[in-house]
Amino acid sequence: MTLWRNRELRQHINVIDGTVAPSIVLTNATYLNVYTNQWLEANIWIYENRIVYVGEKLPDETTGTNFYDCQGKFVVPGYIEPHSHPFQAANPEETMMYAAKTGTTTFVNDNLTWHLLLNKKKTFSMINAFSKLPVNIFWWNRFDSQTMLKDNRIFNTRDILDWAEHPMVIQGGELTSWPSLLTGGDRLLYWIQEMKKLGKPIEGHLPGASSRTLTKMKLFGISSDHESMSAEDVLKRLELGYRVSLRYSPIRPDLPEIIKGLLDKGVSQFDNMSFTMDGPTPAFMEDGIINICIEKAIENGLPLEAAYRMASYHPARHFNMEEEYGSIAPGRVANVNILSDKQNPHPESVISKGEWIKKNSKDIAYPAYINWEEYDISPLELDWDLTSEDLQFSSPIGMDVVNDVIIQPYTIVSDVSADKIPSSKKEQFIALIDKHGGWRVNTIIRGFAPELGAIVSSFSATGDIIHIGNSKKDLRIAFERMKELGGAIVLVNQGEILAEMPLPLGGVMPKNPMKEQIRMNKEIKQVLKEHGYAYEDPIYSLLFLSAIHLPFFRITQQGLIDVKQREIVIPATMR
């Protein structure tokens, strides 16, 4: 990856020769050298967005240089999130800028939302705009939608190959459609091969996979996986040559137990492991992202140096970017975290791409940069109304929520013809309705939040409108409020709006500052729990209603789906 032109490279040499002043000099720094695994003392020179010198000398030319004394402090590379979903009822610009203040300065992001919101030309223009933010932003190349869309042409060879060649796209996957490889999916295999030819790794999605399946996936070219749920899972993957991200996420906070398990098994080499939060919702990332993973790892016995390397150098090496990212050395992008103590991974100062993001525990204010309207990402304008026919429920098969990720089919025996279902039955109406008003899928859901009159959400796996509730009256109120806001998550009970999160950016993203997003997220979770929601994260529950990479029964654009058989049990109805 070439980040600097010849003229810029010559200028960097001029800084060393003393004819040009560095932008920032960190003096008296005790920094972690990830190559020797030692804490060394040095002065660190930064010119614009690049580290140009690490050593004992100070520059000869210092006109305009910002000196920062690191005496008594510790310096580590900026943290890297290698598996980011920045759209979980969140604004990706706010998500990444907020996380950068806690030390995560590089993100490798899912691109699925762009597929659903924009055409390729506008998406690539949007990606270029994101690259101008003072954080380091890269993207995946998705191969499938994780659901069953009406239009499956969204993922086609021409677009996939264009994504593959984009310089800001550095991996393929995550590969939720991997079972199709085992049944002869040559188109998917071709896409994987083309990514590998470009030197870009493939991220798997292999929860619970056997050694036999993992071996087959390795032969197909899968490079890494983030779905380990135990130390045994991690070791199984490492032994087969995978690189493994250890996860601390809203619904899979497995990291502490995995670290303890690995140490108990005598593991002392962590070079092929990294950390991920795998798409935290706003409330879960209130205190940061990778800094929290490091904290959990250290608390559970992981050596300090290994933890900081897993947070920086290891993912950079995985993405074939170690010459630019993941270390404090000449030639690297200036992503630097300054700590008050080695044991404390929460930085008091952060430099990203050579710019101060946080300094002496004070956040540096940056205005919002992305002009969403320029890319036609604006409030939803629904030209249809919720009708009495939309709220007719006659399906014989319902959705039984077992836990955060598992939904099973069940036979509906209750009378659901009335306008309200008693909360004692633990059942609610559920409808997924096309945001363009063309179709609907209706059934009953059991065990979601049975005491709640209504939740209506434009945040979903497809961008269509989810309606869940035990009261048709409350469903109408929640729908009208969601429509008025141009997209939102709205909770209503007994005619009263209890909580809401406006999502005016395409109906799936908020525009509020992150602290507001966190507050609204917490409020929605609290209200749902007060009305019978028994799981970890309602944002994920809404997202996973349509996710066919999870067992066993889902509601999608095409209808109610038996996931294992990939069969439509009850098709969508045209409105």
TrEMBL record:
Entry keywords, A to Z: Hydrolase
Pfam (any one): Adenine_deam_C
Reaction(s) catalysed (UniProt annotation): adenine + H2O + H(+) = hypoxanthine + NH4(+)
Domain spans labelled Adenine deaminase C-terminal: 424-566
Presence of keyword Transcription: no
InterPro entries, alphabetized: Adenine_deam_C (IPR026912), Amidohydro-rel (IPR006680), Metal-dep_hydrolase_composite (IPR011059), Metal_Hydrolase (IPR032466)
Domain of life of the native organism: Bacteria
EC class name: hydrolase
Amidohydrolase-related domain: residues covered: 74-356
Keyword Hydrolase: yes
Enzyme Commission number(s) of this protein: 3.5.4.2
PANTHER family xrefs: ADENINE DEAMINASE YERA-RELATED, N-ACETYLGLUCOSAMINE-6-PHOSPHATE DEACETYLASE
Similarity comment text for this entry: Belongs to the metallo-dependent hydrolases superfamily. Adenine deaminase family.
Protein name (record): adenine deaminase
